Amino acid sequence: MQQTPVLSVIVPFFNEEESLPLLLDQLYEALSERDFRALFESPFSFELLMIDDGSTDTSADIVREHIELRPEVKLVSFQKNFGKTAALAAGFNYASGDYVVTLDADLQDDPCAVKELIEKLQEGYDLVSGWKQHRQDPWSKTFPSRIFNMTTRVFTGIDLHDFNCGLKAYRRNVVKSLELHGEMHRYIPVLAQWKGFRVTEIPVKHNSRKHGRTKFGASRFFPGLFDFFTVLFITRYLRQPMHFFGMLSLLSFVAGFGISLYVTIGKIFFNEAVVNRPILFLGILLIIIAVQFFSLGLLGEMLTRDTSTTSHFIVRETVNVEEERDS
Questions:
Q1: How far apart are the C-alpha atoms of 50 and 88, rounded to whole Å?
Q2: Architecture of the domain delimited by 7-237
Q3: How far is the C-alpha of 282 from the C-alpha of 284, rounded, in Å?
Q4: Among the ranges given (43-57, 103-117, 129-143), the one the predictor scored with the smallest mean pLDDT
Q5: Residues 219-237: pLDDT tens digits?
Q6: What DSSP line would sit under 72-107, residue for residue?
Q7: Whole-model pTM?
Q8: Beta sheet of 7-13, edge-to-edge order
Q9: Which of 197, 237, 262, 269 satisfies CB 3.0 to 4.6 Å to 244 for a cystine?
Q10: What is the DSSP letter of 134?
């Protein structure tokens, strides 16, 4: 029976055949250093969970070749490209280690930073996120990223500089409690802190891309924006949706009732015309909207009693992967 690993390293990838061989070598070198292993209680062991997000090149074949020589390497291949959020969710499902680290496969994340993340984690934190303080990317990526990070920081109150850094370290109970879908990998620190976990960040080295091109373009902007509003809602009103919809209903009803009362008083005391007045229709519309918001709140309260556990990805193949350990 194989020993349960202390550390799980999750690497989602999509068409990274040029980067994977060097990345695996760098990871093995970083995880084999004596100073790094000294951070853990002996005996130390690890697993490398390589999550193939539907690659169409030879990336999965490269991982299979490494599995024959390195038993710590494990492969989970998707039926098609489901996105980074699904890849991380699958990695979290299969991870067995007490510590979990994630990093991207494009060689821009430095495997040597894993040691620094674990050291910070052992200071009592539950999630440590990397901060690409000196990011080696073109302005077309860095500028939108700064806007995104600033907006997320302002609306969530979480003082992080880089929410979307792929290099993160977690305690096991964090990853087993996260429910990811859509493009929510960008908001993992927000979701973790909402659940009561201690979150922090440290600066990490960021390298320029050596092979291939980025898989994240402008098409991801609007899905990410919509998920931002979703995260704001679920972190504040998921358990009490009536607090959100009820407030909207109350505001709409007060405005509609006030307008209707104004028209009624004008008719009774000043004999003003009621028909063909746009303001009257506005009042009626606001009252109808108030009823709809109230109904949504009630439906939301009932739906919170029923949590869906459906996976948002389909696994085509697993290699060298055992059943998930109980949380």
A1: 10
A2: Alpha-Beta Complex (3.90)
A3: 5
A4: 129-143
A5: 555 666 667 777 767 666 6
A6: TEEEEEESS---HHHHHHHHHHH--SSEEEE--SSS
A7: 0.76
A8: 199-203, 127-131, 168-171, 99-102, 7-13, 46-52, 73-78, 315-319
A9: 237
A10: T
